[in-house]
Every structure is written in structure tokens, then in C-alpha cells.
Specification:
With 440 residues, this protein is of the alpha/beta class. It contains 17 helices and 13 strands. It has two domains: 244 residues, Rossmann fold; 171 residues, Rossmann fold, CATH 3.40.50.2000. 42% of the residues lie in helices and 14% in strands. Helix 12 links the parallel strand 9 and strand 10.
């Protein structure tokens, strides 16, 4: 497998490009099955790297989790699961987390996931193996940085929690008490995050905005950006011209979260009956994950033409029969796995600006960016009435995803970062990204 994005590595004379490395991943949970965004990112990364490098994994979890991963591991000769360990019991967890946050300690995120058994296993693994890089995934596992010793390490935060909190504080639909609480949490988290950057050789974010924010407000000179990847299974299905597909809408997110759930309730309460009256064959499929309250489920299921699921095992099959996706959640920051998957599957995606964070979309060309729910509803109605336009936008969306957000492209970007870190070369602020929105 070639890696064209690795050809411009800033390596010393005589160094090998993308030489076989030994990598250790320390994870909050095993990535298989990939039923959440964190798992999807790590699964895609390890799938790519284990074909080219030796990859070991330590994770929180149980022996049953290891058995569930058995078939996945068996198909990847370069991959080993070294062990799964349950977190230590923690008394007065909420109180201790609040004290740590007030004191500006990053350990506020660690307390729930601390495992001394995992730390011991990590020290042993690093002592016994000459790892080129240790990848520690999520701030919740940041306590493992100390157990790595002198080994090079990359700490992947994915998103900036402080930036997320400040984004929630600006949500005009939220009560003032919620906004004030989010603002105070953001200020406290900002102070804690400043201490994170000295713990790793590189601190990774998936979004450009998060990485730029961290460099500007946290002094994060070792902050780097590598985007999320879209699995090939979403890119493999050719868009169809089935009339049912053109009248089917998908809304998918973590609707156990109140801010996401409230946004879709507002959208459906105000606009679904009008859309349905104008397009009687319109069908809306809502996938909301775990934690949806009974009252919300009852509200959604009373709406005509609406189907609600907590989880769909073969999401790609659902997407293959869907023409439009709508994301009316204007409170979250960072790159969105589900938005990217819908675009990769050739769907016309309608959302607010935050839905496309980190993606160089052109509204009306490869997605439709709307500032308000009224505009989203109007756009969805137009797409239902013009399936050819919907297919055209979906096709361009897939072109954009293929331009720099595939598993191969993103995997090569991680290889570049690991090689720079292992060699002690000054790291770049960004690795990878779209080649061109016009790429074929």
C-alpha cells in the first residue's frame, strides 16, 4: 500500500520513510464494535496501521470485551491486545472531580478512569518493548503519561473541552443558568488544559478550530490537527435513484444529550407537520443512541411518517436508502463523525455551520449550510421536491470526503506524525487534510 502523503517527511538524511514502527495504544475502551465516535476513530486508525506496523493495545474494559474483539484481532496479524483492566473504585467521585477542576488540575477527567493495574501493565510493556511511540487516547487516560517513562508519546484529546463549554455558553436557546454554568466550566477547564500540553510530545485534535484555539489560548506549541476518517464501507455504496430514497430523511446523533434532543424537538415541533403536508411521502428516520427519555421517544413516535431507533447495526444499509440528512444541533463544536459518514455515503446533508466544523464545504455545492431551523426546514423541503439536486449535492459531498478524509489519507497523516515524534523532529501544526474540494 502506497503512502503518497508521507513522501515529504522532514527526515534526516538516510532516514527511512514510513519505516515499520512499534506502536502502543492506551485506550479508554476497546474500539470494536465501533458504536461511538471515539471507537470509530481508533478502529479506523488501527485497521490502517496494523497492516504496516506492529500495534499493541492496552485498554480499560473486561475479559468479555477482549473476547468480543477476538475475530477483529485475528484478522490483523500486526495487532495484539495486551490486556483489559477495570477502573479502580472511586468514592466521592463527583466531589473529587469538582475539587480537582477548581484547583486547575487535569486529573478531574482522570478520576473516573484511573486503573493502577493498567498503569502497571503499561510500565511493564514499555520496559519490555522498544516502542517508537505510545498513543494515549482521550484526556481521561492522561494519567498514563507518567507511566510511559522516557518513551515518546502522543496524547489525543480529539476536541477541546474548554472550547465546547464556551460554545454551549453562547447557545441562545439554553437557560441563562445553563449558559453561566457552561461559561464557568469553560474557564476552569481552560486552566486545566494548559497543564496538559507539557505531558506529551504532541497533543492531537481532530478539528482545525480546536487546534487553533489551543495554540492561541493555551500556548500549545505541540498541538497538531489530524481529521477524522470515513470508513470505506460508507464510500463503497453508489448513490441510487430510488424514489423512496429521495423522500427519506435521516436525523442521527446522541439524543441522550439534552442539548441535541431539545434541538430536534424544536425542529420537529415547528416544521415536521408542514414538511409532511407538502411532501406526503416524506419519511424521517431518527437514530438517537442510548439514554433517550421515554417522554422524548413518545413525542417522536406520535409524529406521522417518523421512525425512531436507538441503534442500527448496519448503519451503511440505512444510509444507502436515504437521500437527505439533517443536523439541527447548533451547540456542539469539533468534527462530526455522523456528518462525514452521511456525506461519504452520498447524501445531501443540511446543517448549521457547526455541523461542518473542519470540513471545507461550499454551501449549495457539497452540503447546505443554514443559520436557522426555518432555513433548514425550507432547504429540506426543496431537496425533497428536487431529487436530482439532492443527488448532485450528495455526489459532490462524496468527492469532498474522498479528497482527504479516507482511512488511507488520514492513516498516512498519523504515520507522518508518529515518524516526526519518534525522530524528535519539530512537529507540524497540521498533518493531512483535503487535497482539493474539486478532487476526483
Amino acid at each position: 500500500m502506497s503512502c503518497p502523503t508521507c513522501l515529504d517527511l522532514r527526515l534526516p538524511p538516510g532516514s527511512r520513510v514510513c519505516a515499520r514502527m512499534k506502536l502502543l495504544f492506551v485506550l479508554q475502551e476497546l474500539p470494536h464494535p465501533a458504536n461511538n465516535g471515539h471507537r470509530q476513530k481508533v478502529l479506523s486508525l488501527i485497521d490502517f496501521l496494523s497492516e504496516r506496523h506492529a500495534c499493541d493495545v492496552l485498554a480499560l474494559g473486561t475479559s468479555e470485551d477482549s473476547l468480543t474483539c477476538g475475530p477483529w484481532v485475528a484478522g490483523r496479524p500486526g495487532l495484539r491486545i495486551l490486556g483489559c483492566f477495570e477502573p479502580d473504585p472511586s468514592r466521592f467521585l463527583r466531589f473529587r472531580q469538582m475539587v480537582a477542576l477548581l484547583l486547575g488540575r487535569p486529573s478531574a477527567s482522570w478520576l473516573r478512569f484511573r486503573s493502577r493495574a493498567l498503569e502497571d501493565a503499561l510500565r511493564h510493556a514499555v520496559h519490555e518493548n522498544d516502542y517508537d511511540v505510545v498513543h494515549i487516547d482521550l484526556i481521561s487516560m492522561g494519567y498514563c503519561c507518567a507511566a510511559v517513562g522516557r518513551a515518546k508519546r502522543v496524547l489525543s484529546l480529539n476536541d477541546s473541552l474548554s472550547l465546547t463549554m464556551f460554545g454551549r455558553a453562547r447557545n441562545r436557546f439554553a437557560p441563562w443558568s445553563f449558559r453561566l454554568s457552561a461559561l464557568l466550566s469553560g474557564l476552569l477547564q481552560l486552566r486545566a488544559e494548559r497543564k496538559v500540553f507539557g505531558m506529551a510530545d504532541a497533543v492531537h485534535f481532530v478539528g482545525v478550530a480546536d487546534a487553533d484555539w489551543s495554540r492561541k489560548h493555551l500556548g500549545g506549541g505541540n498541538a497538531v490537527q489530524i481529521p477524522l476518517a470515513v470508513a470505506s464501507i460508507f464510500l463503497a455504496m453508489p448513490p441510487g435513484e430510488d424514489p423512496i430514497r429521495g423522500q427519506t430523511i435521516l436525523a442521527i446523533d446522541k439524543l441522550g444529550a439534552a442539548q441535541h434532543r431539545n434541538a430536534i424537538v424544536r425542529f420537529l415541533s415547528r416544521h415536521w407537520s408542514v414538511l409532511r403536508a407538502r411532501h406526503p411521502n416524506a419519511r424521517l428516520v431518527v437514530v438517537g443512541g442510548s439514554g433517550m427519555p421515554d417522554s422524548f421517544q413518545e413525542f417522536v413516535r406520535r409524529l406521522p411518517g417518523v421512525e425512531l431507533y436507538a441503534w442500527v447495526e448496519h448503519l451503511e444499509e440505512l444510509m444507502s436508502g436515504t437521500g437527505v440528512a439533517v443536523f439541527p444541533y447548533s451547540v456542539a463544536v469539533g468534527m462530526k463523525n455522523r456528518v462525514m459518514q452521511c456525506m461519504g455515503a452520498g447524501m445531501a446533508v443540511v446543517g448549521d455551520p457547526s455541523s461542518f466544523s473542519g470540513l471545507p464545504v461550499r454551501s449549495g455545492h457539497d452540503a447546505v449550510v443554514c443559520e436557522t431551523h426555518d432555513a433548514m426546514a425550507r432547504t429540506v423541503g426543496e431537496l425533497l421536491g428536487d431529487p436530482a439536486r439532492s443527488r448532485r449535492i450528495g455526489a459532490q459531498a462524496r468527492v469532498l470526503i474522498r479528497s482527504g478524509f479516507t482511512t488511507d489519507a488520514v492513516g498516512c497523516s498519523w504515520e507522518r506524525l508518529y515518524t516526526d515524534v519518534a525522530a524528535g523532529i519539530p512537529i507540524s501544526s497540521r498533518y493531512g487534510g483535503p487535497i482539493s474540494a474539486e478532487a476526483s
